[in-house]
Amino acid sequence: MLKVKNLSVHYGMIQAIKDISFEVNEGEIVTLIGANGAGKSTILRTISGLVKPSSGEIEYLGKPIHTVATRKIVEQGIAQVPEGRHVFKGLTVQENLDLGSFTRKDKQNLAGDLEAVFERFPILRERKNQDAATLSGGEQQMLAMGRALMTKPKLLLLDEPSMGLAPIFIKEIFHIIQDIQKQGTTILLIEQNANVALKIANRGYVLETGNIVLTGTGEELLASDEVQKAYLGG
Ligand code: ATP
């Protein structure tokens, strides 16, 4: 579904991503794990078209997208839930969700899709008329995910959904991520929390200072000595 080939990204003189290649197949949860500053967010921002690569290609459903504008990429079915959620404060929960469907060409069944989001996240229905600023961190993560789902994505990009959340919320969010996969959405998940990410991922890649240093199934990576030592305190 998504093929990243020999991708390099620079910020001025700094090379954040160094000639990396990986792929995500339809129906999978693939995770990119790595420490702070390894380049995880840069990869997501490049897939979304917010950052342009200095070399390499990104192919989505058989077509190059690294030269395409972000809006068109979203229209083709890629949605990103950014690190730190970025919900629109000052707008209600429902208004935030409505913004998710803004770029959609097919406006059919918006009410049904909103209902599906409320069924997945009942707390958002309870709070639909509340200012998004009043939500807890976990609820804001749910709202950001709900907003992305309103674009009806084929591929969902999640940037550190566990960040800053209490363990009980992390468990709930990761359960929901698996559920979204079961209902047919492919997921690329970026995480510093290697333990939770590898438990639900079909496959993973370990990123270190802009390079992929290890790859395997979620189970293989969880069991690997390198991952245990570097990321799981083992
Ligand atoms: P984090 O978990 O902190 O977001 P990350 O793995 O997502 O880490 P990136 O944010 O992609 O890492 O950063 C990769 C490298 O690029 C880092 O060295 C970072 O300092 C640098 N970088 C990121 N954004 C910029 C920017 N806008 N300008 C200059 N350098 C940047």
From TrEMBL:
Gene3D superfamilies noted in UniProt: P-loop containing nucleotide triphosphate hydrolases
InterPro entries assigned to the protein according to its UniProt record, in alphabetical order: AAA+_ATPase (IPR003593), ABC_branched_ATPase_LivF/BraG (IPR030660), ABC_transporter-like_ATP-bd (IPR003439), ABC_transporter-like_CS (IPR017871), BCAA_Transport_ATP-bd_LivF (IPR052156), P-loop_NTPase (IPR027417)
Signal sequence, renumbered to the chain: none
Keyword ATP-binding listed: yes
Highest rank taxon of the organism: Bacteria
ABC transporter domain span: 2-234
Molecular function per GO: ATP binding; ATP hydrolysis activity; branched-chain amino acid transmembrane transporter activity
SUPFAM superfamilies xref list: P-loop containing nucleoside triphosphate hydrolases (SSF52540)
Protein's UniProt keywords contain Transport: yes
Keywords for this protein: Amino-acid transport, ATP-binding, Nucleotide-binding, Transport
Family the entry assigns: Belongs to the ABC transporter superfamily.
Protein name, as recorded: Abc transporter
Species the sequence originates in: Trichococcus flocculiformis
Native organism taxonomy: Bacteria, Bacillati, Bacillota, Bacilli, Lactobacillales
